[in-house]
Design goal:
With 337 residues, the chain is α+β, with helices and mostly antiparallel strands. It has nine helices and 14 strands. The protein has three domains: 59 residues, Arc Repressor Mutant, subunit A; 208 residues, Bira Bifunctional Protein, Domain 2 (BirA Bifunctional Protein, domain 2, 2-Layer Sandwich); 43 residues, SH3 type barrels (Roll), CATH 2.30.30. Helices cover 31% and strands 25% of the residues. The strands form three sheets. Strands 3-4-5-9-8-7-6 form a seven-stranded mixed sheet, with helices on both faces. It has a five-stranded antiparallel sheet with strand order 13-12-11-10-14, with no helix packed on it. Helix 2 packs across helix 3. Bound molecules: biotin. The site of biotin (BTN) has 20 residues, from helix 5, strand 5, strand 8 and strand 9.
């Protein structure tokens, strides 16, 4: 279980320069000058990048040209495609396989990993979903990652980060595909009532103050219907099924991380109100008649509002208003307005 690629920063710099170069490529001397490396060092790194799956042409006339990136996710490649990394993305680690990126991120956060560290995996052997469920998906079809955040907030405010992540993921994927994505409370990203992405937020905190938060995100990207377990085929979807053609997964990952970074930065400066408004505008839960399962209890009613802590308020048929901080929503389709 090794992060992909050593020498991360110079590789990310080379990939970024290659991706930004003109279609003809970039001369070795220009690359060396721009990055403050020797031509020999660049030559050596090109070989390493080729063995990581980058197709790079070298010609005496034009220099280096990136023909294509690797099919597998590579941390430096994702980092090189980030446009906004004020909080997130200074350290993007990609693993071939891990038990759960949330588990690994938790271990690293306990050991002092910096805020903004991204832990990504091609495959999870014990992926975790909400409400104690498993998150199962075949290797190299999804984006599976966890962010380490160290916000200055009380534990009761952490649900906001989950709503923010759901908004950011929805916006990033909507910008890539034009699809009308919606959010099912609290944080499932849906397309036409099918689940496209899920978020599991976990934290370590004392009574008053959060030490760190792990925001784990799973997005179905390349799944065909047969890639889902039979019981999920009618309720799950993937980005390729929605959009037909897609940029590489590394680019999709970078766009999602950029959007989370922008939204997080904005929220830390201007407060949470705008994020909540965006969440409401994308909600497919508010206004609908729902069943909410909490443990072994089911509460039915109309989803009336979401408050600034992220809690859902439901008005039961008797008119009683109930507030919930968690649970599993099922929409009563025949009663939906
Ligand atoms: C849900 O039940 O909807 C939440 C699913 C969250 C899955 C992601 S995949 C990456 C991260 N690691 C995990 O073990 N879970 C989250």
């Amino acid at each position: 279980m090794q992060p992909a690629g050593k020498n991360e920063s110079s590789d990310a710099m080379i990939i970024r320069a290659l991706r930004r170069a003109s279609p003809e490529g970039i001369a070795g001397t220009d690359l060396a000058r721009e990055l403050g490396l020797t031509r020999g060092a660049i030559w050596a790194r090109m070989d390493v990048l080729r063995s990581a799956g980058f197709e790079i042409e070298a010609s005496p006339h034009y220099g280096y040209r990136l023909v294509s990136g690797p099919a597998n996710l590579v941390g430096d490649d994702i980092a090189a495609q980030l446009e906004s990394s004020r909080i997130i993305g200074h350290n993007v680690q990609v693993y071939r396989e891990t038990s759960s990126t949330n588990e690994l991120a938790d271990r690293l956060a306990r050991g002092g990993a910096a805020e903004g560290t991204v832990i990504m995996a091609e495959r999870q052997t014990a992926g975790k979903g909400r409400m104690g469920r498993q998150w199962i998906c075949p290797g190299s079809r999804s984006l599976l990652f966890s962010l380490i955040l160290r916000p200055v907030m009380r534990p009761t405010e952490v649900a906001r980060l989950t709503l923010l992540a759901a908004c950011s993921v929805s916006k990033a994927l909507r910008n890539l595909t034009n699809a009308r994505l919606q959010i099912k409370w609290p944080n499932d990203v849906h397309f036409e009532d099918r689940k496209l992405a899920g978020i599991l937020t976990e934290m370590r905190a004392d009574m008053d103050q959060v030490e760190y938060v792990i925001v784990g995100i799973g997005v179905n990207i390349l799944h065909q219907p047969s890639d889902f377990p039979p019981e999920l085929r009618d309720t799950a979807t993937s980005l390729i099924q929605i959009a037909g053609t897609l940029p590489p997964r590394s680019t999709i990952a970078a766009r999602i991380l950029d959007q989370i970074d922008r939204d997080l930065t904005f929220t830390r400066t201007h407060g949470f109100e705008q994020c909540l408004d965006e969440w409401k505008s994308m909600s497919c839960t508010l206004g609908r008649w729902i069943d909410l399962r909490v443990g072994s209890n089911v509460y039915s009613g109309q989803a009336e509002r979401i408050d600034e802590s992220g809690a859902l308020w439901i008005r039961g048929e008797s008119g009683k208003l109930m507030q919930f901080n968690g649970g599993e929503v099922t929409t009563q389709k025949d009663m939906a307005p």
